[in-house]
Amino acid sequence: MDIAFPRIEPAVAPVPFTYGSRRTLPVARIELGGVPRGAAIVLCAAGALERDAGEVMNGLAEKGYESVAVDLSPGTGAVSDRDLLGDVSVLMGLLGERGWSSEQVGLVGYGFGGRTALLAAAEFEVGAAVSVGAPLIRATRPVKTPWLGLFGRQDPAAPPEAVACLRARLRDSPVHTEVVTYPGVARDFRFDAREAQAHAASFDVWQRTVEWLELRVAPRLTAVAQKWQTHTASGAAGPSRV
Amino acid sequence: MSDYIEVDQEMPRFRVNRKVMTDPAVFASEREQIFNHSWLYVGHETELAKPNDYVTRTVAGRPLILARDAKGKIGVWVNSCPHRGAMLCRDPKGNARFLTCFYHGWSFNTSGEPVSVPAEEGYSADFERPGLASPAKVESYRGFVFVSFDPDIVDLTTYLAGAKEYLDLVLDQSEVGMEILPGTHEYSAKANWKLLAENSYDGYHLLSTHQRYLAMIAAAHGGKLDVPKGIDDTRAINLGNGHAVIAGSPASSGLFGRPLSEAAKQEKAERFQRLREKFGDAWVDRMGGARNLVIFPNLVVIDLVMGVVVRKIEPVAPDYLEVSAWHLVPPDEGEELHKQRLDNFLTFWGPGGLASPDDVEALETCQRSYTAQRELPWSDISRGLHSEVKEMGSEYQMRTWWRRWHELVVGEALPEEPQGPLPDFFVGQRLPQTAAATADAN
Ligand code: FES
Ligand SMILES: [Fe+2]
C-alpha cells in the first residue's frame, strides 16, 4: 500500500445517526475526483478509527474507491444488531448522496466491524462484503451479498469449530461465499508485520480484500460508457445460453 | 471404401488403417469435419452452484468459459478478450460478477456484456463495444451442457438419438438429481484420441488389461471374486449418430467395488425399491446393469451403478490427448455408499489408480508401434462381425463409432451391420413420468 501515491488525509466529521443507534459518531471520508471505480464502507475494529481508517481508506483510494469509515462499536453503552444495521444504512445513505447505488458499494469490516459487515451481508444486497477477524455470530443467517471471511486460527473469538460451522451454514446462501483462515495468527494480525506469519497473512488479507471487491462491486459507468451501452454489439443475445 | 477403413463383407473383416492415428492431415480434417459439426460436451450445470460461478474448459482446441450469470442463466463464452485476445479467466474455476482482462483492463459481466474500458476517450463516441463471443449453439440435456460450432446442426435431443435413453438410466438414479462432485481428474496420454474413445467401451480388454484391479477387488472380498451369474448376458448397442453403448445384465454391476456392509447393502436395496415404485421394474432392472456409453465423438459416461465417471477426451495432436474426468453422484446417498463410489473413482478410474494407468500404457504402446505402419498398416476391429448377437466383448460398438467417423471425414457411408433383436431386458421402458419428475434441479 505504500507505493508512490500521495496520501489523502480523510476528512473526519461528526455524523448524527438518525436511525439505527441514534448516536452521533465521527465518520472519516475520502472523496475522489473523476469517475471513481466504486465506493466502500470501512467498518473499523473497536477503538481503531484513528489508527486504521486512514491506511485502509488510502489503500482503497489507490484502487479507485471512495470510502467512508466509522467505528460502530458500542463503547460503554449497548447497541443491538438491529441498531447496527440501521447505522449501516445511514452510511449507505451518505454514499447515496454521492450517487452510489448499493451494487456499487463494498463493505470491509475489521474485528467488531467485521462482525457488523457479516450481519449487513445477511441483510442487504450490496456489491461485496469482507470481514477480517470478526468475532463469530451464533447461528448466522445465509447472506445476500457475496461475503469473504478472513480469520486468524489463533483468534479465541473465532475458534476453528465455529468457523467450520459458519462455512457450512453459509453454503445455503444464494450467493458465493468464501472463508480463509491463517495459521499462527490471532485477530489483529494486520498490524504486526514483523512476525513472518503475520506479515504473510496481512499481505494476503489485503490482496484478497481488494480482489473480492474488484470481482463484484459494480463499476460506475462513465458518460461515454453510458452512451456506448446503446452501441453494444453483445454476444450475449441468442444461442449462447442454455 | 477409402484408404482408411476396409470392410470385407465375405470373411467378414473390418480394419482401420493406422494412418488415421498418426497423419496430421487426418487430424486437421477431423477438427473440421467432426469437431466443427458435432455437439460437444462442456460441463455440467451442477458444477456452477451459485450465480457468477464459472469453470474454464478446452473444447475442440478452443478455450471456453462455462458460467452461470448473475440471474442464474447458464452460458458459454469464448475465453478470449475481444480487444486483442488475452484470456479473461486463467483459473480452472472461480466466482466473479465481472471478468476483467489483465492485458488492457476491459471488463465484461457473466452474461457476456461489455462493462468498462479504461481510458475510453481513445475511442470515438460511436465505437461499437464488443461483448464476449460464444459458440454458435449451446444446449443442455438434464444438466449436461453441450456446445456446437455449427449453427446449422440439429438440436441436441435429435443429435443424442438413442444415447438420451442411456443418459436417463444414469440420471434417474437420484431422487434429487445427480450432481458432479467438485474437482477434476486431469491426465494425458501420448496416444491418438480415438484410441481412448475405443478403449472406453472395450469389453474385451477387462480381464487381460485390468487383472491388477480385479485382483485388488478379489482381495477385498476375501480372496475370491464372485463372478455374478449371467454376467455374460450383455450387449453392444448402436444408438444412432455414431453413439453406442455396452450394456450389462442386471448382474454386471455386482463385479465392481469393494464390499459393502449389510447396512449399506440394505440402504442400496431400499433406494432401488423406491426407484422401482417411481419408474417401474423394467426400467430399474436395466438401471442396475453396468453401462459404458460413448457419445460421438468424445464424451464417455461409464456407469458401474456404484460409481459414474463422465470423461471428456480432448485431441491435442495426432499422438497426444488430454482427459478431463468428473464424478457424477446421487447426493441423496448415505456415507458408506458414497465412500464406495469415491474409492472406485480413485482406485479404478483415477489417473494414479489401478486401472486407468494400464489403459494409458496400452494406448501409448499402440501409438508408439504405429511408426511401423508400412510393415503393419491395419488394426483389426472385426470381433463379433460374423454374428447378429453383439455381446459386449464384440467390437460392434467401435465399428458403429468408426462408421460415423468415416461418414464425416471421408463423406461416404460404409455398409451397415445387422443386429439381431435385443432381449427384453435391454429394452425395458420407464413408466410415464410427469415432466416435473424427470426435470432435474438445475
Ligand atoms: S486484450 Fe483484453 S483488454 Fe486488451
Ligand atoms: Fe480399461
TrEMBL record, chain A:
Residues 100-214 form the Dienelactone hydrolase domain. Pfam families: DLH. InterPro entries: AB_hydrolase_fold, Dienelactn_hydro, Dienelactone_hydrolase-like. GO terms for molecular function: hydrolase activity. It comes from the Bacteria. PANTHER family: ALPHA_BETA-HYDROLASES SUPERFAMILY PROTEIN, CARBOXYMETHYLENEBUTENOLIDASE-RELATED. This is Carboxymethylenebutenolidase. It comes from Streptomyces humidus.
